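Submission checklist for the structure archive. All mandatory fields must be present; incomplete records are returned to the submitter.

[x] Identifier: Teicoplanin resistance protein VanZ
[x] Organism: Bifidobacterium fermentum
[x] Residue count: 399
[x] Sequence attached
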Amino acid sequence: MKNSADVDGASLIDTNVWFSHLRSCHLDDRDAILQATLDIEMSLTGRIDMFQLNIFFAEASKELRNAVKLLESGMYDSAFYSVRSAVELAHIVAYFSGDDDPASSELYERWKKGGWFPPDGEIRKNLAEVCAPFQEVKAALPEFFAERNKALRRANKYIHRQGFRTFYSLTQRPEPWYAGYLPAMRDEFHAFIMGAVTEIILLRLSVDPFPILLRDPDVMYKIHYVSQTKPLSDTVVDLFLTPKIIDSYRSTSFYSQLAEEFSGNEPFSKATYNLFNFGIYHHADHDKIMQQFKLLGKSDRMAVRIFECMPDVSCIFTESGLKMYMAESFVLKSGPLISSDDFRTDQGQPGIVNRPCPQGYETLIHIDGDAYMLNHAHPLSTDSMRSLERLKSDIEADS
């Protein structure tokens, strides 16, 4: 039976008193850390045998974000734990990547079912043996990984609450001998999460090198397919990967052997590269693009022809709206860009012509079995439509 006096007394206490031991903390490099988590999450590996395991890096990214939120809320022991958990997830997926068929391995099946699984200490001990690329990375950067081991031991003091400096009851005390506890913890956490982000990036780069390969001008312009992987951003590379780390990583056979596979390809010009990878077209680059027309895909070539035939067209959608091309005149306005339903028009029926839309007007045309939705600022004239039909006839006659 509850004591009514206790209940009544508790109701008179400001509820904030229950959490008065928490002190909000400012985290240096907060935005860059959050940007790095997005880079990690977007650096999807295109390895077919690893594709379903991309979720491990996505989850590690969310753990890092949780850590930032927890620290800002003053829950620093949980923040340290969340960072450690993020790195452990990255260890696990890198460990799986060393298997011939990761998604079907016995260890992965046990992990999914919640059965016995090696602790992180054992995973870290055996990772270099199981994952040859990581062995190269670790051998190239021994000082970094030695410091990471020391940083983990220091972080574990906060996670396991060893030493009075880890106690909430004392970090808020005003006495001089306690005054340095909170600033010291913030500095320790900053160093720990910064190093953790770098380590997770290196573990991701042990699966495949594309997040760095796609930044290498000697290689990126020779890749003649659109990679699912997004390259690491300049901000993240500049803050988390020192020139020594980049150079050491590029010196590994894991990196150089894959880079060599593209060495015989004709390099894209920047204009052709931007069209092929990002759908960006500038009319002034037409001649440069035409010199490499044979390197482009079918829809890329069609977009170039439409843009040149119809100068008023600022944007083209194809592949049921999944692929988009933009001329320099394209300006994003509010409202939906496209609906996949627009591409379900029967080729034998009249198409969409000069229909108002948030971007101005849109016209649908079928060419050589594919549908193209054109966005333009002004209604297409009768002469413009005739030019478009001539283009359609010429292309279909040649195919």
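[x] Structure attached
Curator remark: The chain has a mean pLDDT of 89. Residues 29-262 form one domain.
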